[in-house]
Design a protein that fits this description.
It is a single chain. This protein is of the alpha/beta class. The protein has two domains: about 1-275 and about 285-325, Spore Coat Polysaccharide Biosynthesis Protein SpsA, Chain A; about 350-410. The chain has eleven helices and 18 strands. Strands 1, 2, 3, 4, 5, 6, 9, 10 and 11 form a nine-stranded mixed beta sheet that branches. The chain has a four-stranded antiparallel beta sheet with strand order 15-16-17-18, with no helix packed on it. Helix 6 packs across helix 8. The longest helix has 17 residues, at about 225-245. It is globular.
């Protein structure tokens, strides 16, 4: 293959910065570049200034979309990017120079990620962030329990645990050797962990290179989420534990942690998870990952933090590493604090945030039945934690709050 860089850009939903991103990627590279756009269930724009346009008629997710682009790339080195980014001039030369060395053949790389302004220019004064390590077990909002999830950090160059920042480069041949891990994913999210962990376990590395990208961060996806979109990230996490070739006691512990997740009792998740286990790609990947079992102890010792991060601490750390989330008041006037607003009573649909007074876990309460109590309708539900001994709780339908825990609830 010729010396150059194939930039794979995935698009789903409204991406008004896609054309600008494609131009930025080509103009800043400093080397031959082809830009491949992969539309995931979105009508392709034939006027997009790219070299190839590929599409999934129905949404498949970020993993299969990026995989499709990788397989169609004409250059040996590929770079995965989002559709709302800018790049440091000469970034492509840095990536290709790295992969010209034979010793770097088994690397997955990323650059520093700087939050961008609305015009995609990097936020001034920011050095950038990247992935560094993994959390063996972590807690997320909404009652989710995750395993082997990447963590943000700040670093200059060298080996890291996990790529982050939506700009990942590697040799296509190495991607094939580690089992084409992105093709295992369903929906969106999870590609960082699959790429990084499979590279480390297969005898490769994850390396932070000295270039920056700016990334327009958003509070929500650019498309309307359906039930599958919400379910598949949890399926990807559970599959990662299934594939991870750890010794039996550790895997049992990780499965027990996931079983406490709110998602683990959702019938939609259970059906999707069971169907996923027998997919041909997953069956083949399980055999391949088992062949890497000897590398697991070294990976865990070097890159994984064993203790679960408490939810409040994790949220605090995350906000501290997201300066672009802070409001930037105009400099020409004194910012005015908004008047405090009375807190509205949570709706029943937000019952994920109710804390079980028995086990302390914040989760949803699966509704068992509703009944008339003192002239009003009441909902009875169960704590979603399978290890919780409390059998039931009465929840107010209007306020979405626990009414009481009493002996009547134990009859459910």
């Amino acid at each position: 293959m010729k010396q150059g860089l194939s930039v794979i850009m995935t698009i789903r939903g409204d991406e008004p910065k896609a054309a600008q991103t494609a131009i930025n990627a080509r103009d800043a590279a400093g080397c031959p570049v082809e830009v491949v756009a992969v539309y995931d269930g979105t009508e392709p724009d034939s006027d997009l200034p790219v070299d190839q346009i590929l599409a999934h008629r129905n949404p498949r997710g970020i993993g299969p979309s990026r995989h499709k682009g990788i397989m169609a790339a004409k250059y040996a080195v590929v770079l995965l990017v989002d559709a709302h980014m800018d790049f440091e001039p000469g970034y492509g030369k840095v990536i290709l120079e790295h992969f010209r060395k034979r010793s770097n053949y088994k690397d997955v790389t990323c650059g520093r990620c700087i939050p961008s302004m609305l015009d995609l220019s990097p936020m001034s004064g920011e050095r950038g962030y990247t992935g560094a390590r993994f959390s063996l077990k972590s807690e997320e909002t909404g009652g989710e329990k995750w395993c082997l999830s990447g963590k943000w950090s700040a670093q200059d160059e060298g080996e890291i645990g996990c790529v982050f920042g939506a700009c990942y480069g590697f040799r296509r041949a190495w991607y094939k050797e580690i089992g084409e891990p992105l093709n295992l994913l369903r929906g969106w999210f999870g590609d960082e962990e699959y790429l990084s962990i499979s590279s480390w376990l297969a005898g490769g590395r994850v390396v932070l290179l000295d270039y920056w990208t700016s990334h327009l961060f958003r509070d929500k996806p650019s498309f309307d989420w359906n039930r599958s979109d919400m379910m598949y990230p949890a399926v990807n996490r559970a599959r990662l534990v299934d594939l991870f070739p750890a010794e039996p006691m550790l895997k049992e512990d990780l499965h027990a942690w996931l079983a406490m997740s709110i998602r683990s009792v959702d019938q939609g998740f259970i059906s999707a998870y069971n169907a996923d286990k027998v997919r041909p790609e997953v069956v083949e990947a399980r055999k391949l990952w088992e062949s890497w079992a000897d590398n697991v102890p070294a990976f865990l010792e070097r890159w994984v933090d064993a203790e679960a991060t408490p939810l409040k601490q994790r949220q605090k750390e995350r906000e501290a590493k997201r300066p672009w989330k802070s409001e930037q008041p105009p400099t020409n006037r004194t910012p005015v604090k908004p008047a405090p607003q009375p807190m509205a009573a949570p709706r029943v649909q937000q019952r994920n945030y109710i804390e079980c007074s028995n086990c302390g876990q914040r989760n949803s309460f699966r509704v068992s039945k509703t009944m008339n109590v003192n002239g009003g309708r009441r909902r009875y539900g169960r704590c979603a934690n399978p290890n919780c001994k409390q059998k039931g709780v009465m929840v107010d339908r209007t306020a979405g709050q626990v009414i009481y825990w009493g002996k009547d609830a134990t009859k459910i």
